[in-house]
């Protein structure tokens, strides 16, 4: 109830700011049309029906084992993108969102709403449905996804490009050299680790390891959002970004930790433009450091082996004191190929000593892929994507799982045959109408959850996406 009360207060504050700005505009010049032009209103609706065929099990199961029996699941998200220009270079944005459903995974109940008997996404580190990371419950729920203010400050007398109204973007001139300050509740992945070909599970690749750096345990609550203060220094050929963000109190938790002296996340990124084969490309280098209550895998393994591991609540998901540090780096590059499409590559690593706290149980990852537009077959709004991912975890992380431990996503009860988790994804996206897209997706996952005794898993999905 407290969570919804806070959300309602923020919503009321937002509406007050908007109506106040509109009234001021009308009082000044009675120009209603100009006032309306300061608004941005957009909408998206995405459903993903995904299933896997039966596959070879390991002969042993754990708390987060992906069932070897064939399974089908549905996820739904719908978002309203509201924006209002406040003054020169400044805008405020609000995104009410509804999400529900689940991903394929362990399930012991016939009821789709019995949250105590299954998790929305388990058994695979590179989970195959990128929309489920926004879902903390099978029940459709309304919440405030984003609520933030953005201020753009021109640097010098740089040229400007007119940005058209789109999701979380009001119509306004954008200077080529600028300082951008963003404060509020956002998805930190909106600002960092962007990639033109592999970043949006609503229109591109669906796998978690392909939409972001797999080893970046990026700050977020269960649904993928957090409160942050971000600053971007952007020049025509390079950019520098930095952000301070809140981390959840517990692993994969929905409640964020406001004890910022003891729990916080720092993210920095350097972006550089380059030219290859006469075409402009982009490379990004990211580094992060998270401080939370996350315990070390070594301490958790020792407790398991001694028979003194706390299970209520699980030690690895809550810890006992602050001071757990996870840090890492990642490289992200994209190379356009003209009207054909483009190529992308990502590589990421974290120290793998403390428990995964926010994104997914990957400590190192490498991905490579291509996104091909439909111009060559006279379907310019269609696209084909193909990519591969190779994920791994640290020795300490693997030892914890082998000792019978479970994180918030993985845990087969044992891991005697550790192998890298290998993923292939292929999709075809077709534009059926002006605002309607339909995507057929196939994924092959070898060694799900790094377990060489399980799989491979074949997954098929059908994604419906509406936007305007």
Structure, explained:
With 468 residues, the chain is mainly beta. The protein has one domain (38-467): Beta Barrel (Porin). Helix content is 13%, strand content 42%. The protein is built from 6 helices and 18 strands. The strands form 2 sheets. It has a 16-stranded antiparallel beta barrel with strand order 1-2-3-4-7-8-9-10-11-12-13-14-15-16-17-18. Strands 5-6 form a two-stranded antiparallel ribbon. Strand 2 and strand 3 (90-101) form a beta hairpin. The protein is globular. The two termini are 32 Å apart. Residues 1-8, 10-33 and 108-118 have low confidence and may be disordered.
Features:
single chain; 468 residues; mainly beta; Porin; 16-stranded antiparallel beta barrel; two-stranded antiparallel sheet; 18 strands
Distance between the termini: 32 Å
How are the strands of the biggest sheet laid out side by side? 1-2-3-4-7-8-9-10-11-12-13-14-15-16-17-18
The biggest sheet amounts to: 16 strands, antiparallel, barrel
How many distinct domains?
1
Please estimate the helix content. 10-25%
| Secondary structure category | mainly beta
- CATH class annotation: Mainly Beta
Looking at the overall shape, the CATH architecture is Beta Barrel
Q: What is the number of helices?
A: 6
Output the CATH homologous superfamily: Carbohydrate-selective porin OprB
- Low-confidence runs of at least 5 consecutive residues: 1-8, 10-33, 108-118
How would you state the average pLDDT, rounded? 89
| Tally of DSSP β-strands | 18
């Amino acid at each position: 109830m407290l969570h919804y009360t806070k959300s309602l207060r923020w919503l009321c504050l937002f509406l007050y700011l908007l109506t106040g700005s509109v009234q001021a505009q009308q009082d000044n010049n009675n120009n209603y049309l100009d006032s309306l032009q300061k608004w941005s209103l957009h909408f998206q609706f995405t459903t993903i029906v995904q299933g896997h065929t039966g596959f070879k099990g390991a002969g042993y199961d754990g708390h987060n084992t992906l069932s070897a029996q064939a399974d089908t699941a549905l996820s739904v998200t719908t978002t309203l993108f509201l924006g209002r220009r406040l003054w020169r270079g400044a805008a405020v944005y609000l995104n009410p969102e509804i999400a529900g459903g689940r991903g394929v995974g362990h399930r012991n109940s016939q009821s789709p709403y019995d949250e105590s008997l299954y998790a929305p996404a388990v058994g695979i580190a590179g989970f195959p449905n990128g929309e489920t990371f926004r879902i903390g419950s099978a029940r459709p729920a309304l919440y405030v996804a984003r609520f933030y203010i953005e201020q753009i400050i021109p640097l010098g007398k740089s040229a400007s490009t007119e940005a058209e109204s789109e999701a979380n973007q009001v119509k306004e001139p954008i200077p080529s050299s600028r300082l951008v300050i963003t404060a509020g509740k956002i998805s930190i992945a909106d600002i960092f680790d962007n990639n033109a070909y592999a970043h949006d599970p609503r229109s591109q690749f669906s796998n978690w390891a392909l939409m972001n750096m797999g080893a970046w345990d990026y700050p977020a609550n269960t649904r993928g959002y957090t409160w942050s203060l971000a600053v971007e220094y952007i020049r025509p050929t390079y950019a520098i970004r930095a952000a301070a963000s809140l981390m959840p109190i517990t692993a994969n938790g929905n409640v964020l930790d406001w004890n910022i002296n003891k729990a916080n996340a720092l993210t920095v990124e350097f972006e550089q433009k380059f030219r290859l084969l006469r075409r402009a490309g982009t490379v990004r280098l990211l580094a992060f450091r998270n401080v939370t209550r996350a315990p070390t895998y070594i301490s958790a393994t020792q407790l398991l082996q001694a028979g003194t591991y706390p299970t209520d609540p699980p030690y690895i998901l809550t810890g006992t004191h602050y001071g757990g540090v996870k840090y890492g780096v990642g490289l992200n590059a994209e190379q356009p190929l003209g009207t054909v499409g483009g190529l992308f590559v990502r590589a990421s690593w974290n120290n793998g000593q403390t428990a995964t706290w926010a994104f997914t149980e990957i400590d190192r990852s490498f991905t490579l892929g291509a996104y091909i537009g439909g111009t060559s077959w006279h379907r310019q709004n269609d696209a084909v994507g193909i990519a591969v991912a190779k994920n791994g975890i640290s020795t300490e992380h693997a030892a914890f799982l082998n000792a019978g431990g479970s994180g918030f996503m993985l845990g087969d009860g044992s891991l005697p045959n550790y192998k890298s988790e290998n993923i292939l994804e292929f999709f075809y996206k077709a534009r059926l109408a002006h605002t309607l897209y339909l995507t057929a997706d196939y994924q092959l996952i070898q060694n799900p959850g790094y377990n060489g005794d399980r799989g491979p898993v074949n997954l098929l999905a059908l994604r419906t996406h509406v936007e305007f």
